[in-house]
From TrEMBL:
It comes from the Bacteria. Residues 12-90 form the Mor transcription activator domain. InterPro entries: c-mor_Regulatory_Protein (IPR052411), Homeodomain-like_sf (IPR009057), Mor_transcription_activator (IPR014875), YraL-like (IPR049739). This is Mor transcription activator domain-containing protein. Signal peptide: none annotated. It comes from Clostridium manihotivorum.
Length: 92
């Protein structure tokens, strides 16, 4: 997210109206609902995490301990437990 000067974006009359409510403060203007995209849609991150979590669950089923998986994947044991629990629920 980048910041832009309202002075460069809005016509003077609209800027004066906005200044009645917010004068010199930062505000966030959300995207329109139809322009929003889900997290991970623009990158492979979502896919990579899904693949990693599937590997973790598979290795857990093969007998690897939560602590060993946490060390291998540089995650906390609690995170490994959450991944395993979520995978179990998905497969039920």
């Amino acid at each position: 997210m980048s910041y832009a000067s309202a002075r460069d974006i809005f016509p003077e009359d609209i800027l004066e109206i906005i200044q009645k409510y917010v004068d010199g403060e930062y505000i966030y203007i959300p995207k329109k609902e139809e322009n929003r995209i889900a997290w991970g849609e623009l990158t492979q991150c979502k896919k990579e995490l899904l693949e990693r979590n599937n590997k973790i669950y598979g290795e857990y089923l093969l007998g690897n301990s939560v602590n060993a998986l946490a060390e291998k994947y540089f995650l906390s044991p609690k995170s490994i437990q959450r991944i395993i629990s979520k995978k179990k629920k998905e497969l039920e």
